[in-house]
Each structure stands twice: as C-alpha cells, then as structure tokens.
Amino acid sequence: MIKPAGASSGAKNNINHMPPIRSSSMLFVLVLLSVLLLQLLFPWWIVVVIGFAAGLASPLPAWKKGLIVFSAIGLLWLGAALFITFTESAVLLPRIAALLQLPSPWMVFAVTVLIGAVPSSLAAVGGSWLVIR
Amino acid sequence: MAIRISRGIRLLKAAALLVLTVLLTWALSTRIGIIPSLGHLVNPWQGFWQNMERDGVQDLVLDSEQLLSTVTVRYDERGVPHIFADNDYDLYFAQGLVTARDRLWQIDFQTRAAAGRMAEFIGPRAVNYDRAQRRLGMMYGAEINAAALGTDPRTALKVQAYADGFNAWLDQLKPRHYPVEFKIFDAEPEPFSPLGTALLLMNMSQTLSSGTRAHAQSNARALLSEEVYRLLYPDELPWTDPIIPPDQRWNFDPVAPATPDPGFVPAIVRDLPVSDRDPAIGSNSWAVDGSKSATGYPILASDPHLSVDLPSLWYETQLHSTGANNHLAYNRFLEDGSNTPADGAGTQSNDGKSRANIPGNTGFSTYGASLPGAPGVIIGFNEHVAWGVTNTGSNTLDVFEIEFRDEQRAEYLHDGEWKPVRQRIEKISVRGGKTVIDTVLYTHHGPITQPFGENIAPDRFPEGHALKWIAHQPGNNIFLAVYKFNRARNQDDFEKALHHFTNLPQNITYADRHGNISIGHFGLFPVRFFGQGSYISNGRDPAYDWTRFVPFEHLPRSFNPQRGFVSSANQAPATREYPYYLGSSYYGFSRGARINRILANSENISGNFFEKMLMDSYSLYAEKTLPFLLAELDDNIRNRKNPDPASAIYKMLKEWDYKFTADSPIALFYANWEQRLLQALWNPLMNSSDRYMVRPAATTTFRLLLDGEHDVIPEDVSETIVRTFRETVEEHVRRHGSDPAAWNYGRDRTAHISHLAMLPGFGRDDFIASGRSETINATGYSHAPSWRMVVELGPDVHARGHFPGGQTGNPGHPGYDRFVDDWAAGTFYDLHFWRGPADEPDQTASTLILKPKNR
Questions:
Q1: What's the pLDDT tens digit per position in B492-507?
Q2: Mutate to test the interface with A, among B11, B22, B32, B49 (most CBs of A within 10 A)
Q3: Contact B43 A39 (CB under 8 A)
Q4: CB-CB contact of B473 with B495 (8 Å)
Q5: SS3 B693
C-alpha cells in the first residue's frame, strides 16, 4: 500500500520513500494512466482497486479524492465509449438501451460512466478514511 | 481518548463504506437472474462497446498449421464469403472459420439448445426445457448421426474440417471480442465438434419432423362416431392438387405392409392442451422446364418458411474448390489416428477408413444457403443444377403405447415377450444449482418422452409413451447427400445423392442446365398399413415396428412432366392411388393450387416472374371461402340503410381482391374473422371433454360449409357466421379505429422477428410485409419465407435471392438486420456466382486470406 512518507509511524502499511501525491492534477493523471494500462490486463473491477489505491496514496481530502477518481474514471470510460461510437457503428446502442430498459440510447453512456465511476470513487473515499493522517 | 474514539468511528465508517463498495462491485460483476453482469457488460474495454463494428467486413490474414494450401475468401458487398480452395479439407475449414466469424454465438447457442443444455446458460428455470430435449432423444439422436457421419471419409472429413476451422477462429479470438450475447449471458463459447453438426441436424429435425397428431387423432376417433370422424378428419384434404401430377401411374409391385392386431384401441390421452403446429412452417419450391421459360432452360424457385429470427437461420456462401489437392487432404486425414469414426449407440460400424470413397482431384463450385454449424450448401445451385426443398407432412414420428411388466418398468411387452428396458442417464448442468440427473427409459422403439407422474413438456407427448422418430434411425448420412448435391453435374449425380437423403424427409425440386426438371418425396418412409402412425401405435404388436422402408425406386416422383413444371407446397405428395400409406397430415390446398394455377397458365416465364410469384399474396383460400361467408351475411347487412362500420366492412370485403398485401385495409379483418369463426364453430366440440383433440382443418371445415354438410357441426352455422362477423367488427374498430381508410394489414398485424434468445431490442418488431400462411408469400407473425431463391439455369447460371436478416450475427454491426426491409418489400439481390478467385475482381469488398503455417 502507498502512504505518505511523513505520516504517522503507527500505520502498518508503510512503504518508505514513496512521494506523496499532493497535487490534484497529478492524482488525476496517475489514476487515468493506471486505469488505461491496467484495464487492458484486468477485468473491469480493476478501476475499483485503483480508486482504493488512490484513496490510500494521496493526502488530499477524502471528498476531493473521490471526486478526482470519479471524474478520471468517468471521463476515461466516457471518452472510450464516445471514441468507439464515433469510429465504429452505433447500431448496438438502442439495442443495449432496450435490453437494459433505458428510455434512450444516450442513457447507455450515463450507465457506463456511473458503473465505472461510482464504485471506484466510493473505494477512494473508503481508502482515504482508512489512512490516519 | 477523544482522538481514539473519532479514529474508531472513522475506521468504522471506512469499513462500512468499503464493504458497501465491495458488495456493489460484486453485484456489478455477477449475473443476477436475468440481469447481466453490468460491470462486464458496459465497460468500454471488454464489454459490449467492443462489439460495435463499422460497416463492411475487415480485411484479414490468418495462418493455421492445419491448412494444406492458401485459401482465398472474397467477401462481396453484402458480406457473402466466396471461398476458393484447392481441396475439401481447406474448403470446409474455411467455411467453418468464416461462419464462426459471423455466427459464433448462434452456433454455440443452437447447439446447446438442441442438446438440452440451456440450464447451464440460463439457470434452474431451463431445467424442464433441457429434460424435454433430452427425453426427446436429441443427444441420443445426435450421437447416432455423428457416428453415421463418421462412416464415410467425405462426410467425416468435412465435418471435422468445419469444426477445425470454427475452433481456429475461436482460438485466436480475444474474450473482449466474443459475441455480445456471451457477455449478456456471462458465458463462454465452447469449441465445436462433429457432434455439434449432428446436434444442429437434430435441431432441424425437431423443427421439421418431430410433429405428430397421433394422440389427438386417436382421441377424436374414440370420441366421435365413425361417420362424423371421417367427415371432420378425412384422409385427404379437400381441393388438394398433389405434388405428383394426378395422372402419374405407379408401375411397380409395392412391398406389402404388416397386418396389425385389429383389436387394439389406444387408451385415452387426457390433460394435454389443444396446441397445433404453426401453419406458417411450410415451404414452396417449384421449377419450370424450357417449354415454359423465356430462356428455353429450366428455372427453379425455393423458399423454406421457418421461424424467422436474428441472427438469421441461413448463412449465404459460395464454396469453390479446384480439388487439386484432394488426395493429399484425404490421405492426411485418414492417416491421422485421431480421426476414427465415433462409435454411436446402435450404429453398424462401417469402416470409416475405407479408401473406396475418397473423391478424385476434381473441382466444383456451389452457391446458396448454408446452415450455421453444418458444412456445405443446403439449398442452392452450381453451374449445372439447382435444387430446392419443402417439408413433408408424411408421418415421421410415431407414438407407441407401452405395456410395462410392473411399476419397476424394467421390462415391456413386445411380440409376446417381456423385453428389457434400457436406461440412458442424462446429466444436466445447472448454472447456480446442482446438476440434475434424469433417467430416460428406452424401448426398442425409442425414448419414453414424458416421464411418469410429472409434466415437463405438457404440450408435446402423452405420459409414458415411447417415440419412434426418423431422426433416431441409425446409419443415415444426410450430409453425404448434401456433399453430392453441391457437386452434382447432372440428373444421374443428383439421383445418387438423393439415395442418402434419408433421415430428414423432404420434397426436393431439381432442375439442370441440360433441360431436366423433377420433383420427389424423399426420405425413409416405413412401409405402413393404412392409418399407421396417424394414431397411437401398439407398442406390443410387431406389426407397428419400422422394419421395412419404401424402396427408393417406389418413392413418389415426377420427371419432366408433360405440363412443363413441378411444384410443392407441403401438400399431399400423391393421390390415394399411390400404393403406400405415408400419412394424412398434410397442408391445405391454397398455396400449392395457387402455384400450379399460375404455372399452368403462364408461358415465357422469366426469373423475374418467379420473384413476383414468391411475393404473391393472393389467397385461394379466401377466394374459396369469402363469397360463401358474405352470402350468409347478406340478409343481415346488405339492406341496412344507416352506414355503420359493419356495412362498410361488408362492402370492402365484397370488393376485396383476396390479396394479403401490406397496404390492404381489409385483409386483416378477414384473417381475424376467419380465425374467430373456426374457433366458434369447433371450440364447443373440442372442449366438450378433457380429451385432447386438434380441431378439423380449416379447409375441411369450409368443405363442409360449402357443401351444405352443416349437420356435423354442433353449432348453428349461419348464426355463428353472423355473430362472429359482428364480434370481429367490434374488436377491429376497438383496436384499429373506426376509419377503414386508416387500416393497414402490414402495419396492424405486427409481424416481428425475434432474437434467437428473445433478448429485448435485439430483434425487429417493426417490419411490414404482405402475405399470410396460405399465400405463396407465407409471411406469418413469426414464421415466414426464410430464404427466397430463384435460379435461371443455362450456359451461364443466374440467381437472385434474399433472406430476412443479415450475414453477420453481430447486433453491433449495421449488417445484422440489413436485408429485412428488402426481403419484406420483395427486392431480390443478385447472387454473385464467381467462376474463380479472379472473377469479377471489382466486386470484392474485402478479403480474408488463410495461409498454411509450417509445422
């Protein structure tokens, strides 16, 4: 587990010499990159693990980390979904919408974003609550 | 202290939130009931997004150690693969591969559905379906047929090559590119095998040859007086124009049937609901010779009517092989020890290694509709011949009453002896549940389909009866017939092929470039005494056993008839003068007589004329019945002063041209009225006891009405006609409004194409088409012409066709349902029959190159 080097010595999950991720944009980029990379190798729930790790790794406030993880993963998933939609054909979207009983094909994007972003940002908040600062 | 407490609370909150997160993540990763695993389904890296494809087929190069030579596959602009190979193995390997590329999920799903393995996909809800499939002997029959496939090197090689090609595609496919249905069902595709091909044959047999009315007819015969029974259920339906022209003479000595014990009266079968097969499952096929065609050469049409689903039943393809490396392919295949023929139950094991049947290094090229999962072209043509098929209503499945010795059911009585009952153990894996083990009892007739004391498929067969089904008959290799059809160059070749067309009886239409046309009723038909198989059979009496079959030379056939055409539309194959009894359960006259009427009255026929004929929605049945019905209404309606919906409808019916065209305002009214009338006339009698009966045929009913034989109908005919007319008017106005100008048959009848697994949104709910089951264009609600094909033979073969779907089975590809609207509107496509890999190069939309890889 990753933890700020200067934090309380009582914590067990201490990995020394890891620089704290104090910058929001740095965390955002790190989450984005790790999702991009690990998503290719692991099932979808790797985003939840990454969210949790982000919660542990950064000294930023919990709500902020939650928001960063939510927006990073949400944007990434949305971006990937939009990219596919515009480079490939969109005929599957109304079918998936009907399958999931969604009123509009555009809701499929919302569902996609929420399923990626909600559990991972919850994991980020939970993760930061675990760490005592 | 305060810090500790707040730290404790904080940890507690964290723990609660993380538990919630883990639960949520778990829920999103798990299929719960029918709700898919949403995390897997919607994530853009592995989920359905990866199934979204742009139009067209991607160019691709693959290699395989199994190939002998390079195979070129050219896709045309409709996504039809044209496969060019130099030997049978590579050819069918490529067919398996390209079919898997487009229809992987369909093949996997249909194979499991046929085998009774749905519970492993769906869960405990599907256990009864699976048990019913197993108890019908689907797996049992597949094993028998797989063994038969293995007995000839040609079919053994082709099914193995097809499976190898399928598996080569699957092996290189990344899980994120698995068809979307696997993601929805949270399942994995499994490798294909020759058993899968045999299962798909069983699936076709189940659709086409597993029907019987034996129990309904036995009940009706027991309930009704002999005279009434004969009137309601005549051996021949009225007005039928049989497949073989009535002037045909039968110059042979027929094999005599056995004589049954005349005292046998089957026990009454109760508790089965009234159900009947869908009359839209049927087919047309016809051909004219040069005397009637504009080209001077034969023209052939075929359109099998089956359940129309997405992905489509059919897959279009051209198979082309020079045959130059056939010897190499067969030598390698036969030397490979792993290709020993499967040893199926009850099969005489011929030597599968026989080298006598290795084909020479000769080429062929064929085009047509293939069935995903089965190598070869099922309905199609080559440069010499064309062939079409329609289903037969002859008896193909008999129901036997069995006398067991005691409650142990270890022995049954047959031919005066107690014979042992065999047991077959069926293991059904259940998703999220324990494996179900079902013991199915088998007599020498076949399986006991409905178990004792439970109802697993209540609409099918009576409890404790055994089935004898042609699909279970050992030693038949219909795929050898298909192999030979594809390569036939003339009537002789085709004739040899027909000898193998045994275990899925069909009417087969044939035409060739040499000017010949023919039709026949092909398959294994037991030599039956009159009525045998049409009622419940006596399982004790060997006279009912299928011991002898109608010799091939005695089958009902017609070659180059004087009238210049041959046709079939599921009607009786021949008049009662034909010396063998085949069955009594054929289709009504309407389609067949309409086809014959048109062909008899037409000259200079073109392929285009056949296309229009295939789209013909004129109902001879309506022509015959409506004037009578309207005459009955006359006094009630005609003299009315006030215009009301009833008189407006009456007037429209009077003026109707009997065509079920999509834009007809009145066709739907007639259809609904006719249905309501038949129900009203017969339901009181059908429901008068708890005995299961099927109501008399519609044409029989009208034969009685038109001939004034109203006494046998328990209801007051005139009153019922008037009453049902009024009821239909009321309902029609309620449903479709009171403005007749706004009524529209095509729209109002809401015909649909379902997804194979009934996934909402994955079918087509909105297609608008003309036709009804009794018109040549037999487009019903869920069954319809599933592959329309017209072939003009001659020095250069020309063919046109279409089917309701698309080549790709991927719902994320624009081609998935692309042909539906053209199919519904009657727009045909040119079928590109390419002479070689370089023919019409500008028509190639994309290519797939399959290369051999050095071992």
A1: 999 999 999 999 999 9
A2: B49
A3: yes
A4: no
A5: coil
